[in-house]
Amino acid sequence: MEANCFICGKVCKAEGCGTGYGVDSHGHKICYDCAGKLDERNLRKMKIGEKTIHYLKRTVIKKFENAGESCEYEVVNWPGTFRHHLTLLRRGRHNIAGEQVHFRLSLSGDTPLRFHCVHYGFSNTQLHVRRIKG
Ligand SMILES: [Zn+2]
User: Residue 19 region, left (φ>0) first, then alpha (ψ -120 to 50), else beta?
Assistant: First the structure.
């Protein structure tokens, strides 16, 4: 199945198991590239205290023989066309989810922006992103 992107007009072709496009809140079909730009713009428009949900991508950089591994963390949108490096702040316990991991996201630009991100539990990749002061 093919569709034209509502924003750039490009034909979205299915890739792998994906449809090649996403659907926005108005039902418009949007290609992955435009979705990435849109997510970036929306993130930069967020006011202090505002929240959104993106996804956490964990990449193992190095595995240690005895235990543990060293990882790199990124916030991504669902097609992965939007991504930013996250700084790991701390890992803690959570009553219900079992674990919570806190991250800092800093964006440079005309107005540098800071966000606090939290991921709960082990069986999902949802990342709760909140704009903070500074
Ligand atoms: Zn597009």
Answer: alpha
Q: What is the DSSP string of 83-101?
A: EEEEEEEEEEEETTTEEEE
Q: 50 CA to middle of ligand 1, Å?
A: 26
Backbone phi, psi, residue 43, to 5° = -65, -45
pLDDT confidence of 75, banded at 50, 70, 90? very high
Which residue(s) pair with 89 in the sheet? none
Domain ranges of the chain: 3-42, 46-132
pTM value is: 0.86
Distance 115 CA to ligand 1 centre (A): 27
